[in-house]
Each structure stands twice: as structure tokens, then as C-alpha cells.
Amino acid sequence: MDIFSHGLWTAAAYKTIELRQKKHFKIWWAVFFSLAPDLFSFGILFTTRLITLRLFQPEFIDDKGLHPELVPQYVHILYNWTHSFVIFGAVFGLVWLFLKRSFWELGAWGFHIASDIFTHTDAFFPTPFLWPFFDYRASIISWANPNFLIPNYILLVSIYCIFFFIIKKRKDVVKLNHESR
Ligand SMILES: [Zn+2]
User: Fold this and answer.
1) What is the CA(164)–ligand 1 centre distance, in A?
2) What are the sequence ranges of the domains in the chain?
């Protein structure tokens, strides 16, 4: 998915669990981990291009389409590391052992990988979710395809409107209780 959708879906998912289960999460940490797989792969490439003022002419996009073979090799390597359930599972387990408790916000990294599996195609960076053990990658629909992108954002806007009303309603109830005392 695009990086904004990753952040927005993650915040929505963690907020929903908070509202339903009365748990408390550090949602900004979850959002950070939902962006991290792309920040630490393509983010590095875009930052270097920004510094060298070449952000708007990437050679891997032209009028014929996308050319993943023209993306620098280090991005492919970082993409494997950041988009693998194997690496995510190992890190999640190690953090759990180290902290002696689960760090659920880190789960947003796994959520990122899961959502990328369904929103990439063979044309550009299908998700290497079983790397380094298996090279199987799904090819379903690109997140940039309007058939996905438009319903995706309609859903996100609807979900955030619902949150807005739920939170406003809760605040009104608290205010009413306070005033009636
Ligand atoms: Zn990604």
C-alpha cells in the first residue's frame, strides 16, 4: 500500500482495539512501525534523491511504466529485510524476550507486510514475505490501481468520520455527566 494508507489503517486498527477492549496503545509508535518497512527501504532512496535534487526524475518510472531493475540494489536488499514475516517474527520474538513482555505496537510492522502482500503485483516489488526461506511472492493488485486506491480512501475517510462521531459522542456524555453533578 502507499505509505499514507499504511499509517492511517494502522492508527484506525489500534484505535478500534483500544475502543473495543479498553486497552491502551502508544498509537504513534504503532504508526511509526507501520511506516518503517518503507522508510528504511524506499525512504532512504527518496531521501538521497531529495538531497541530490533528483527526486522528481526517478529513472525507474517512465511513460512505458515501472522498471524495478533500475532501482538501486541496496533498496532491493533492504526491501527483503523489511518486508519478510521471518525477519519480523524473529525481531518481535527477540523484543518480547528482551522486554519480558509483548510490545504490541511492533505488530504494526507485521500488519504492513500482510497488507503489502495483497496490494503489489509482479510489475513492481511484490512482497517477499517468506524471504529468505522461500521466494514465493503474490501478485494481486497494485495499491496505485484506481480500482483499489479509490475504494481504499473512501473506506479510510468513512472510518475516520465514524471515529470522529464516536469520540465526540463520548466527550459529550462525559461533559453531560460532569454538568449534572
Ligand atoms: Zn511496504
Assistant:
1) 28
2) 3-180
